[in-house]
Amino acid sequence: MGNTLMNTKGAAEHLECTENWIHKLVYSQRIKAHIYDEHGVLIERASTDKRQGQGLYFYKADLDKYKKRKPGRPAGSKNKK
């Protein structure tokens, strides 16, 4: 399969986070979101678009790029006092 397209729920599962966090990543322009225009063509979401998360789609390749650079929690940070 070429470049898989995912909705918000699928993107959240892929990145192991919540759908709300996906929306925050989109609004902060850390990941690219796509929408269907009125003609049914998939286009990149403009940063000025104020959708509330409905109808956002993501390419798996874009999510994988973010996943690679996402910093993990520092070792031992959970056990600090």
Q: What is the strand and helix layout of this fold?
A:
Blueprint: E1 5-7, H1 8-15, H2 19-27, E2 34-36, E3 42-44, E4 57-59, H3 60-69
Antiparallel strand pairs: 1-4, 2-3
Helix pairs in contact: 1-2
Written overview of the protein:
The chain has 81 residues and is of the alpha+beta class. It is 33% helix and 15% strand.
Short description:
By secondary structure, this protein is an alpha+beta fold. The chain has three helices and four strands.
Radius of gyration: 15 Å
Low-confidence stretches: none
What is the overall silhouette?
Answer: globular
Helix/strand/pairing category: alpha+beta
Strand order within the widest sheet? 1-4
Question: With helices defined by DSSP (H or I, 4 residues minimum), what is the helix count?
Answer: 3
